[in-house]
Amino acid sequence: MSLFDDHIEQIARYLVRMRATGRPVREMQAGGLLFKVGPSAGPGLVLKSETFMELGSPTVGSCALVLLTEEAALVRDGRITLVGPDMTECEPGVTLPFGQVIVAAGPGLTEAHYPALVETQYVADQIEGFMVKSTPGRVWGRVSMGVAVKGFDFAFLGAALRKLVMTHLPEATAVETVFVTSGKADLEPLGEIAAAAGVIARDLKKQRWEERGIDLDDCAFGGHCGSCPDKTVCDEVKKLAHTRKRLAAEAEA
User: Fold this and answer.
1) Would you state the pLDDT for residue 242?
2) Most-buried pick from 104, 171, 210, 253 (CB within 10 A)?
3) Where are the domains positioned within the chain?
């Protein structure tokens, strides 16, 4: 049993509850990619004046989490579940609350692959017409007017994320996504699941850094390197450690 299997099952139960309470819940299957996906496929920046829709801005709420497992039975490859309205059902200028869940499965996936999976949710410039501002546990996205009028929707976004995960994490044989746009209150149960999974994720990160001789408990930013003013120093320390390890290996050869 993988560390996140219980959290994956909690997501499934969450979707059952959403249906039971009358929320619009739709399942789609990832298909062809209507827009570019991959390095530099997107602009990296979508200006407010060019924005059709915002997802998960601080005013409406956001929650994002990623989970992995070795159990293929827990994940249906290509399934995209949407709770709430789709992009094509909205008027220009709308801002929606946004929940995003990415679940990857593969017999070769281990906890060591988790950091790479986390990185894939922050797509940067890898999806045409889609920009993401990211902080831990949140995704704030913008969809440009240019792709919205051509049919950009959650079916495409789920398919794009699946492609990015499988590109960056070849060990993944199945990827499933869940999107929630129905309301801020519906993000709260997701936030609870994300918080519980986050405890495991932090323990994994702490263990990895301790193996490199660094204690995250001494880090004021809790391992969120992008927010830390000492990131440059840490990067240099990592480079030195890598060089020392390489030289030691060469000396033994």
Assistant:
1) 55
2) 104
3) 5-205, 215-252
